[in-house]
Amino acid sequence: MCGVFAVCGTPEAAKTTSVGLHHLQHRGQEAGGIVSFEGEHFYEHREGGLIGRIFNKSVVARLSGTAAIGQVRYSTSGVKHEDVVKQARDAQPMLKKILPFGTVALAHNGNLTNAKTLQLELALTGKVFETQKSDDEMIDTEVALMLIGAAIEPTLVGRLKTVLPLLEGAYAFIVMTSKQMIGVCDPLGIRPLMLGRYKGAWMLASETCAIEGLDAEFVRPIQPGEMIAIEDGKITSHTFSVKQPSRLCIFEHIYFSKPDSTLEGKSVMQTREALGRELAREASIDADIVCAIPDSGNYAALGFSQESGIPFAFGIIRHHYVGRVFIQPPDERDRDISLKHNIVRAAVQGKRVVLVDDSLVRGITAQRIVARLKRAGAREVHLRLSSPPWQHGCYYGIDEANVHRRVAKPYENVAVVCEHVCALTGADSVAYLSVDGMYRAVHGEPRNSTCAQSCDACFTGRFPTPLTDRCGGRIH
Fold first, then answer.
1. What distances in angstroms separate CA 335 from CA 79, 306, 426, one per listed residue?
2. pTM of the full predicted structure?
3. Which residues participate in catalysis according to the annotation?
4. Residue 334's pLDDT band (cuts 50, 70, 90)
Protein backbone atom coordinates (compact mmCIF):
# COMPACT_ATOMS: atom_id res chain seq x y z
CA MET A 1 0.00 0.00 0.00
CA CYS A 2 1.87 3.15 1.18
CA GLY A 3 1.32 6.61 -0.25
CA VAL A 4 3.85 8.70 -2.14
CA PHE A 5 3.79 12.40 -3.02
CA ALA A 6 6.20 14.83 -4.67
CA VAL A 7 6.26 18.41 -5.87
CA CYS A 8 8.88 20.44 -7.71
CA GLY A 9 9.03 24.05 -8.80
CA THR A 10 7.33 25.74 -5.86
CA PRO A 11 8.48 27.57 -2.72
CA GLU A 12 7.86 25.68 0.53
CA ALA A 13 7.88 22.33 -1.28
CA ALA A 14 8.12 20.42 2.02
CA LYS A 15 5.02 22.15 3.39
CA THR A 16 3.10 21.26 0.22
CA THR A 17 4.35 17.67 0.47
CA SER A 18 3.27 17.38 4.10
CA VAL A 19 -0.25 18.46 3.13
CA GLY A 20 -0.23 16.02 0.21
CA LEU A 21 0.82 13.19 2.53
CA HIS A 22 -1.90 14.18 4.99
CA HIS A 23 -4.42 13.52 2.19
CA LEU A 24 -2.78 10.09 1.72
CA GLN A 25 -2.65 9.18 5.42
CA HIS A 26 -5.22 6.42 4.85
CA ARG A 27 -2.57 4.54 2.83
CA GLY A 28 -0.09 4.25 5.69
CA GLN A 29 -0.11 5.07 9.39
CA GLU A 30 3.15 3.61 10.73
CA ALA A 31 5.62 6.30 9.68
CA GLY A 32 6.20 9.22 7.35
CA GLY A 33 9.15 10.90 5.72
CA ILE A 34 10.03 13.89 3.54
CA VAL A 35 13.23 14.72 1.67
CA SER A 36 13.64 18.20 0.18
CA PHE A 37 16.35 19.84 -1.92
CA GLU A 38 17.63 23.39 -2.19
CA GLY A 39 20.87 24.74 -3.63
CA GLU A 40 23.39 21.98 -3.01
CA HIS A 41 21.77 20.37 0.01
CA PHE A 42 19.25 17.63 0.74
CA TYR A 43 17.20 17.91 3.92
CA GLU A 44 15.40 14.92 5.41
CA HIS A 45 13.11 13.97 8.24
CA ARG A 46 11.58 10.54 8.90
CA GLU A 47 9.68 9.46 11.97
CA GLY A 48 7.17 6.92 13.23
CA GLY A 49 3.58 8.09 13.59
CA LEU A 50 1.03 10.19 11.75
CA ILE A 51 1.84 13.08 9.41
CA GLY A 52 0.06 15.75 11.46
CA ARG A 53 2.23 14.96 14.47
CA ILE A 54 5.52 14.36 12.63
CA PHE A 55 5.58 17.42 10.39
CA ASN A 56 4.80 20.32 12.67
CA LYS A 57 5.79 23.87 11.73
CA SER A 58 9.29 23.68 13.18
CA VAL A 59 10.12 20.43 11.38
CA VAL A 60 8.76 21.65 8.05
CA ALA A 61 10.69 24.92 8.40
CA ARG A 62 13.95 22.94 8.44
CA LEU A 63 13.10 21.19 5.15
CA SER A 64 13.80 24.07 2.81
CA GLY A 65 13.72 23.84 -0.96
CA THR A 66 11.62 24.05 -4.11
CA ALA A 67 11.45 20.27 -4.58
CA ALA A 68 10.44 17.52 -2.16
CA ILE A 69 9.26 13.92 -2.06
CA GLY A 70 7.55 12.03 0.74
CA GLN A 71 5.96 8.76 1.79
CA VAL A 72 3.45 7.49 4.34
CA ARG A 73 4.52 3.98 5.29
CA TYR A 74 2.51 0.79 5.48
CA SER A 75 5.07 -1.97 5.84
CA THR A 76 5.13 -5.36 4.19
CA SER A 77 8.73 -5.90 5.31
CA GLY A 78 10.94 -4.55 8.05
CA VAL A 79 9.43 -3.55 11.38
CA LYS A 80 5.67 -3.57 11.97
CA HIS A 81 4.90 -2.64 15.56
CA GLU A 82 4.64 0.29 17.93
CA ASP A 83 8.38 1.05 18.27
CA VAL A 84 8.49 4.48 16.60
CA VAL A 85 12.29 4.54 16.60
CA LYS A 86 12.44 1.36 14.55
CA GLN A 87 9.56 2.52 12.35
CA ALA A 88 11.57 5.64 11.55
CA ARG A 89 14.54 3.44 10.65
CA ASP A 90 12.56 1.79 7.87
CA ALA A 91 10.66 4.89 6.78
CA GLN A 92 11.16 6.41 3.34
CA PRO A 93 12.18 8.24 1.18
CA MET A 94 15.48 6.35 1.13
CA LEU A 95 18.68 8.16 0.16
CA LYS A 96 21.87 6.82 -1.39
CA LYS A 97 24.96 8.40 -2.94
CA ILE A 98 25.17 7.28 -6.57
CA LEU A 99 27.88 8.58 -8.88
CA PRO A 100 27.74 10.71 -10.97
CA PHE A 101 24.32 11.95 -9.76
CA GLY A 102 25.17 12.62 -6.14
CA THR A 103 22.38 11.91 -3.68
CA VAL A 104 19.39 10.00 -5.05
CA ALA A 105 16.17 9.84 -3.01
CA LEU A 106 13.54 7.17 -3.70
CA ALA A 107 9.99 6.77 -2.37
CA HIS A 108 8.18 3.54 -3.21
CA ASN A 109 4.63 2.21 -3.11
CA GLY A 110 4.30 -1.48 -3.87
CA ASN A 111 6.26 -4.68 -3.45
CA LEU A 112 8.95 -6.35 -5.56
CA THR A 113 8.35 -10.09 -5.82
CA ASN A 114 11.96 -10.85 -6.80
CA ALA A 115 13.73 -8.52 -4.35
CA LYS A 116 15.36 -11.35 -2.37
CA THR A 117 16.63 -12.99 -5.55
CA LEU A 118 18.09 -9.70 -6.78
CA GLN A 119 19.57 -8.97 -3.35
CA LEU A 120 21.40 -12.31 -3.34
CA GLU A 121 22.79 -11.62 -6.80
CA LEU A 122 24.01 -8.18 -5.70
CA ALA A 123 25.47 -9.58 -2.48
CA LEU A 124 27.66 -11.91 -4.55
CA THR A 125 29.27 -8.81 -6.07
CA GLY A 126 30.09 -7.45 -2.61
CA LYS A 127 27.10 -5.16 -2.08
CA VAL A 128 26.09 -4.67 1.56
CA PHE A 129 22.48 -3.80 2.41
CA GLU A 130 21.87 -1.40 5.27
CA THR A 131 18.22 -2.40 5.73
CA GLN A 132 18.83 -6.17 5.87
CA LYS A 133 18.34 -7.17 9.52
CA SER A 134 17.80 -10.89 8.84
CA ASP A 135 17.26 -13.29 5.94
CA ASP A 136 13.56 -12.45 5.95
CA GLU A 137 13.77 -8.73 6.70
CA MET A 138 14.86 -6.33 3.99
CA ILE A 139 13.45 -3.17 2.40
CA ASP A 140 13.07 -3.82 -1.32
CA THR A 141 13.49 -0.11 -2.08
CA GLU A 142 17.18 -0.48 -1.28
CA VAL A 143 17.46 -3.23 -3.90
CA ALA A 144 16.20 -0.81 -6.56
CA LEU A 145 18.70 1.85 -5.44
CA MET A 146 21.56 -0.67 -5.47
CA LEU A 147 20.68 -1.72 -9.01
CA ILE A 148 20.61 1.92 -10.14
CA GLY A 149 24.03 2.40 -8.60
CA ALA A 150 25.42 -0.69 -10.33
CA ALA A 151 24.17 0.27 -13.80
CA ILE A 152 26.62 1.97 -16.18
CA GLU A 153 24.47 4.27 -18.32
CA PRO A 154 25.51 7.93 -18.08
CA THR A 155 22.01 9.32 -17.39
CA LEU A 156 19.58 8.44 -14.61
CA VAL A 157 16.78 7.86 -17.14
CA GLY A 158 19.09 5.48 -19.01
CA ARG A 159 19.93 3.58 -15.85
CA LEU A 160 16.26 3.26 -14.93
CA LYS A 161 15.48 1.92 -18.40
CA THR A 162 18.07 -0.79 -17.72
CA VAL A 163 17.03 -1.53 -14.14
CA LEU A 164 13.23 -1.42 -14.26
CA PRO A 165 12.80 -4.43 -16.60
CA LEU A 166 14.70 -6.49 -14.00
CA LEU A 167 12.06 -5.78 -11.33
CA GLU A 168 9.02 -8.01 -10.85
CA GLY A 169 5.87 -7.20 -8.93
CA ALA A 170 4.13 -3.89 -8.32
CA TYR A 171 5.75 -0.52 -7.91
CA ALA A 172 5.16 3.19 -8.18
CA PHE A 173 8.46 5.01 -7.69
CA ILE A 174 9.27 8.68 -7.23
CA VAL A 175 12.97 9.44 -7.64
CA MET A 176 14.59 12.80 -6.87
CA THR A 177 18.09 14.11 -7.54
CA SER A 178 19.47 17.64 -7.41
CA LYS A 179 18.34 18.17 -11.00
CA GLN A 180 15.42 15.82 -11.73
CA MET A 181 12.18 14.41 -10.42
CA ILE A 182 11.16 11.08 -11.96
CA GLY A 183 7.91 9.15 -11.62
CA VAL A 184 7.64 5.47 -12.58
CA CYS A 185 4.68 3.09 -12.86
CA ASP A 186 5.20 -0.68 -13.13
CA PRO A 187 4.51 -2.39 -16.51
CA LEU A 188 1.02 -3.50 -15.44
CA GLY A 189 0.06 -0.39 -13.48
CA ILE A 190 -0.82 -2.46 -10.42
CA ARG A 191 -0.10 0.46 -8.09
CA PRO A 192 -1.37 3.92 -9.13
CA LEU A 193 0.63 7.11 -9.67
CA MET A 194 -0.93 10.42 -10.73
CA LEU A 195 0.42 13.60 -12.30
CA GLY A 196 -0.82 17.03 -11.24
CA ARG A 197 0.00 20.67 -11.87
CA TYR A 198 -0.38 23.85 -9.81
CA LYS A 199 0.64 27.03 -11.62
CA GLY A 200 4.30 26.40 -12.44
CA ALA A 201 4.73 23.36 -10.19
CA TRP A 202 4.41 19.66 -11.03
CA MET A 203 3.08 17.08 -8.59
CA LEU A 204 3.14 13.29 -8.37
CA ALA A 205 0.85 11.42 -5.99
CA SER A 206 -0.58 7.97 -5.33
CA GLU A 207 -4.12 9.35 -5.64
CA THR A 208 -5.95 12.27 -7.21
CA CYS A 209 -7.34 13.29 -3.79
CA ALA A 210 -3.86 14.50 -2.75
CA ILE A 211 -3.58 16.66 -5.87
CA GLU A 212 -7.08 18.09 -5.80
CA GLY A 213 -6.89 18.55 -2.01
CA LEU A 214 -4.19 21.14 -2.71
CA ASP A 215 -6.43 22.90 -5.27
CA ALA A 216 -4.12 21.67 -8.03
CA GLU A 217 -5.15 20.26 -11.40
CA PHE A 218 -5.14 16.52 -11.96
CA VAL A 219 -3.47 16.07 -15.35
CA ARG A 220 -3.44 12.31 -15.95
CA PRO A 221 -2.31 8.97 -14.50
CA ILE A 222 1.20 7.74 -15.23
CA GLN A 223 0.65 4.88 -17.67
CA PRO A 224 1.76 1.27 -17.08
CA GLY A 225 5.40 0.95 -18.05
CA GLU A 226 5.85 4.72 -18.27
CA MET A 227 8.53 6.89 -16.72
CA ILE A 228 8.21 10.67 -16.69
CA ALA A 229 11.17 12.94 -16.00
CA ILE A 230 10.72 16.52 -14.79
CA GLU A 231 13.68 18.86 -15.25
CA ASP A 232 13.75 22.66 -15.43
CA GLY A 233 9.95 22.69 -15.35
CA LYS A 234 9.59 20.48 -18.44
CA ILE A 235 8.32 16.92 -18.66
CA THR A 236 9.55 14.14 -20.92
CA SER A 237 7.87 10.73 -21.14
CA HIS A 238 9.74 7.45 -21.63
CA THR A 239 8.67 3.81 -21.87
CA PHE A 240 10.68 0.95 -20.43
CA SER A 241 8.48 -2.06 -21.24
CA VAL A 242 6.27 -3.40 -23.98
CA LYS A 243 2.86 -1.75 -23.78
CA GLN A 244 0.36 -3.90 -21.88
CA PRO A 245 -3.20 -3.36 -20.66
CA SER A 246 -3.47 -1.97 -17.15
CA ARG A 247 -3.97 -4.43 -14.30
CA LEU A 248 -4.62 -1.88 -11.56
CA CYS A 249 -5.29 -3.54 -8.20
CA ILE A 250 -9.08 -3.89 -7.98
CA PHE A 251 -8.91 -3.46 -4.21
CA GLU A 252 -7.95 0.17 -4.86
CA HIS A 253 -11.55 0.62 -6.06
CA ILE A 254 -13.02 -1.42 -3.21
CA TYR A 255 -11.10 -0.20 -0.16
CA PHE A 256 -7.66 1.41 -0.46
CA SER A 257 -8.31 4.65 -2.28
CA LYS A 258 -10.27 7.50 -0.74
CA PRO A 259 -13.82 7.94 -2.06
CA ASP A 260 -12.97 11.44 -3.33
CA SER A 261 -10.31 10.02 -5.66
CA THR A 262 -10.65 9.06 -9.31
CA LEU A 263 -9.35 5.77 -10.72
CA GLU A 264 -9.35 4.72 -14.37
CA GLY A 265 -11.57 7.69 -15.14
CA LYS A 266 -14.19 6.69 -12.57
CA SER A 267 -15.19 8.18 -9.23
CA VAL A 268 -14.21 5.81 -6.42
CA MET A 269 -17.32 6.83 -4.52
CA GLN A 270 -19.61 5.99 -7.44
CA THR A 271 -17.85 2.67 -8.04
CA ARG A 272 -18.45 1.69 -4.43
CA GLU A 273 -22.12 2.57 -4.73
CA ALA A 274 -22.24 0.37 -7.85
CA LEU A 275 -20.65 -2.48 -5.90
CA GLY A 276 -23.43 -2.15 -3.32
CA ARG A 277 -26.12 -2.18 -6.01
CA GLU A 278 -24.68 -5.35 -7.53
CA LEU A 279 -24.57 -6.91 -4.07
CA ALA A 280 -28.26 -6.10 -3.51
CA ARG A 281 -29.13 -7.76 -6.83
CA GLU A 282 -27.18 -10.90 -5.99
CA ALA A 283 -27.90 -11.23 -2.26
CA SER A 284 -31.24 -9.63 -1.42
CA ILE A 285 -32.77 -10.20 2.01
CA ASP A 286 -35.97 -9.16 3.76
CA ALA A 287 -34.89 -6.57 6.34
CA ASP A 288 -35.83 -3.28 7.98
CA ILE A 289 -32.65 -1.17 7.64
CA VAL A 290 -29.27 -1.16 5.91
CA CYS A 291 -26.25 -0.15 8.02
CA ALA A 292 -22.64 0.30 6.98
CA ILE A 293 -19.55 -0.65 8.91
CA PRO A 294 -18.07 2.83 8.64
CA ASP A 295 -16.25 4.28 6.89
CA SER A 296 -15.17 1.71 4.31
CA GLY A 297 -18.66 0.23 3.92
CA ASN A 298 -20.53 3.54 3.66
CA TYR A 299 -20.97 3.86 -0.09
CA ALA A 300 -21.58 0.17 -0.74
CA ALA A 301 -24.31 0.26 1.93
CA LEU A 302 -25.83 3.31 0.28
CA GLY A 303 -25.86 1.50 -3.08
CA PHE A 304 -27.39 -1.59 -1.46
CA SER A 305 -30.12 0.59 0.05
CA GLN A 306 -30.84 2.35 -3.25
CA GLU A 307 -31.16 -0.91 -5.17
CA SER A 308 -33.08 -2.88 -2.54
CA GLY A 309 -35.39 -0.10 -1.34
CA ILE A 310 -34.50 -0.91 2.27
CA PRO A 311 -33.91 2.36 4.19
CA PHE A 312 -30.34 3.33 5.02
CA ALA A 313 -29.71 4.10 8.70
CA PHE A 314 -26.70 5.32 10.66
CA GLY A 315 -26.74 2.45 13.13
CA ILE A 316 -22.98 2.46 13.73
CA ILE A 317 -20.84 5.49 14.52
CA ARG A 318 -17.12 5.54 13.90
CA HIS A 319 -14.69 7.22 16.25
CA HIS A 320 -12.59 9.24 13.78
CA TYR A 321 -9.58 9.55 16.04
CA VAL A 322 -8.80 5.89 15.41
CA GLY A 323 -7.16 5.15 12.05
CA ARG A 324 -7.63 2.30 9.60
CA VAL A 325 -7.53 -0.93 11.60
CA PHE A 326 -6.82 -3.12 8.54
CA ILE A 327 -3.37 -1.59 7.97
CA GLN A 328 -2.28 -1.45 11.60
CA PRO A 329 0.32 -3.74 13.20
CA PRO A 330 -1.32 -6.86 14.68
CA ASP A 331 -0.73 -5.85 18.30
CA GLU A 332 -2.70 -2.63 17.77
CA ARG A 333 -5.67 -4.08 15.86
CA ASP A 334 -7.58 -5.74 18.70
CA ARG A 335 -7.26 -2.68 20.91
CA ASP A 336 -8.42 -0.22 18.26
CA ILE A 337 -11.32 -2.34 16.99
CA SER A 338 -12.92 -1.91 20.42
CA LEU A 339 -12.35 1.85 20.29
CA LYS A 340 -13.34 2.46 16.70
CA HIS A 341 -17.11 1.81 16.54
CA ASN A 342 -20.17 2.36 18.68
CA ILE A 343 -23.78 1.27 18.12
CA VAL A 344 -26.76 3.64 17.96
CA ARG A 345 -29.26 1.59 19.97
CA ALA A 346 -32.26 3.68 18.92
CA ALA A 347 -31.56 2.98 15.24
CA VAL A 348 -31.19 -0.81 15.47
CA GLN A 349 -33.32 -1.97 18.40
CA GLY A 350 -36.00 -4.44 17.27
CA LYS A 351 -34.81 -4.19 13.63
CA ARG A 352 -33.65 -6.73 11.07
CA VAL A 353 -30.33 -5.24 9.98
CA VAL A 354 -28.40 -5.67 6.73
CA LEU A 355 -24.80 -4.98 7.75
CA VAL A 356 -22.63 -3.99 4.78
CA ASP A 357 -18.84 -3.83 4.59
CA ASP A 358 -16.39 -3.71 1.70
CA SER A 359 -14.60 -6.97 2.54
CA LEU A 360 -13.77 -9.46 5.25
CA VAL A 361 -10.27 -10.83 5.78
CA ARG A 362 -9.71 -11.86 9.40
CA GLY A 363 -13.32 -11.29 10.49
CA ILE A 364 -12.44 -9.66 13.83
CA THR A 365 -14.24 -6.36 13.19
CA ALA A 366 -17.41 -8.03 11.86
CA GLN A 367 -17.47 -10.47 14.77
CA ARG A 368 -17.45 -7.70 17.35
CA ILE A 369 -19.91 -5.46 15.54
CA VAL A 370 -22.46 -8.26 15.02
CA ALA A 371 -22.27 -9.10 18.74
CA ARG A 372 -22.70 -5.46 19.72
CA LEU A 373 -25.65 -4.99 17.33
CA LYS A 374 -27.41 -7.95 18.93
CA ARG A 375 -26.67 -6.69 22.43
CA ALA A 376 -28.22 -3.38 21.35
CA GLY A 377 -31.43 -5.21 20.45
CA ALA A 378 -31.15 -5.99 16.72
CA ARG A 379 -33.49 -8.90 15.94
CA GLU A 380 -31.41 -10.20 13.03
CA VAL A 381 -28.07 -9.24 11.47
CA HIS A 382 -27.36 -10.20 7.86
CA LEU A 383 -23.76 -9.57 6.82
CA ARG A 384 -23.17 -8.52 3.19
CA LEU A 385 -19.69 -8.00 1.69
CA SER A 386 -19.22 -5.90 -1.47
CA SER A 387 -16.32 -8.01 -2.74
CA PRO A 388 -15.65 -11.74 -3.14
CA PRO A 389 -13.97 -13.84 -0.43
CA TRP A 390 -10.31 -12.86 0.05
CA GLN A 391 -8.80 -16.34 -0.37
CA HIS A 392 -5.22 -15.72 -1.50
CA GLY A 393 -2.18 -13.80 -0.34
CA CYS A 394 -1.25 -10.47 -1.88
CA TYR A 395 2.41 -10.05 -2.82
CA TYR A 396 2.08 -6.58 -4.32
CA GLY A 397 2.12 -4.30 -1.29
CA ILE A 398 -0.43 -5.59 1.23
CA ASP A 399 0.68 -7.39 4.36
CA GLU A 400 -1.82 -10.22 3.94
CA ALA A 401 0.31 -12.95 2.38
CA ASN A 402 -0.28 -15.35 5.30
CA VAL A 403 -3.18 -17.64 4.38
CA HIS A 404 -3.68 -18.81 7.96
CA ARG A 405 -4.87 -15.38 9.14
CA ARG A 406 -7.79 -15.30 6.70
CA VAL A 407 -11.23 -16.75 7.21
CA ALA A 408 -11.49 -17.88 3.57
CA LYS A 409 -9.00 -20.56 2.50
CA PRO A 410 -7.66 -20.87 -1.07
CA TYR A 411 -10.18 -22.18 -3.60
CA GLU A 412 -12.72 -22.98 -0.90
CA ASN A 413 -16.35 -23.08 -2.02
CA VAL A 414 -18.08 -19.74 -1.36
CA ALA A 415 -20.96 -21.46 0.46
CA VAL A 416 -18.46 -23.08 2.82
CA VAL A 417 -16.79 -19.71 3.41
CA CYS A 418 -20.17 -18.19 4.28
CA GLU A 419 -20.76 -20.99 6.81
CA HIS A 420 -17.37 -20.26 8.41
CA VAL A 421 -18.15 -16.54 8.63
CA CYS A 422 -21.62 -17.15 10.08
CA ALA A 423 -20.10 -19.35 12.77
CA LEU A 424 -17.31 -16.86 13.47
CA THR A 425 -19.38 -13.67 13.56
CA GLY A 426 -22.76 -14.87 14.80
CA ALA A 427 -24.51 -13.28 11.81
CA ASP A 428 -27.87 -14.75 10.76
CA SER A 429 -26.71 -14.93 7.14
CA VAL A 430 -23.61 -14.00 5.11
CA ALA A 431 -23.21 -13.27 1.42
CA TYR A 432 -20.34 -12.03 -0.72
CA LEU A 433 -20.41 -10.25 -4.06
CA SER A 434 -19.36 -12.54 -6.91
CA VAL A 435 -16.25 -11.94 -9.02
CA ASP A 436 -18.46 -11.18 -12.03
CA GLY A 437 -20.58 -8.80 -9.96
CA MET A 438 -17.44 -7.01 -8.83
CA TYR A 439 -16.30 -6.62 -12.44
CA ARG A 440 -19.73 -5.40 -13.55
CA ALA A 441 -19.56 -2.67 -10.91
CA VAL A 442 -15.96 -1.64 -11.64
CA HIS A 443 -15.65 -2.25 -15.38
CA GLY A 444 -19.21 -2.66 -16.66
CA GLU A 445 -18.89 -6.30 -17.75
CA PRO A 446 -18.18 -9.73 -16.19
CA ARG A 447 -14.57 -10.73 -15.63
CA ASN A 448 -14.09 -13.08 -18.57
CA SER A 449 -15.64 -10.77 -21.14
CA THR A 450 -13.86 -8.22 -23.29
CA CYS A 451 -13.80 -5.64 -20.48
CA ALA A 452 -10.67 -4.22 -18.88
CA GLN A 453 -9.01 -6.55 -16.41
CA SER A 454 -7.65 -5.78 -12.96
CA CYS A 455 -5.23 -7.47 -10.62
CA ASP A 456 -7.70 -9.59 -8.66
CA ALA A 457 -5.24 -12.21 -7.37
CA CYS A 458 -6.38 -11.90 -3.75
CA PHE A 459 -9.81 -13.11 -4.85
CA THR A 460 -8.97 -15.49 -7.72
CA GLY A 461 -5.39 -16.63 -7.18
CA ARG A 462 -4.49 -15.46 -10.70
CA PHE A 463 -1.27 -13.50 -10.17
CA PRO A 464 -0.36 -11.28 -13.13
CA THR A 465 3.42 -11.29 -12.51
CA PRO A 466 6.02 -13.91 -11.60
CA LEU A 467 6.45 -14.62 -7.88
CA THR A 468 10.12 -15.53 -8.09
CA ASP A 469 10.95 -15.21 -4.40
CA ARG A 470 8.03 -17.42 -3.36
CA CYS A 471 7.35 -20.01 -6.01
CA GLY A 472 10.15 -19.98 -8.55
CA GLY A 473 8.48 -17.53 -10.91
CA ARG A 474 5.12 -19.26 -11.35
CA ILE A 475 2.64 -17.01 -13.14
CA HIS A 476 -1.11 -17.55 -13.62
1. 19, 34, 21
2. 0.92
3. 2
4. low
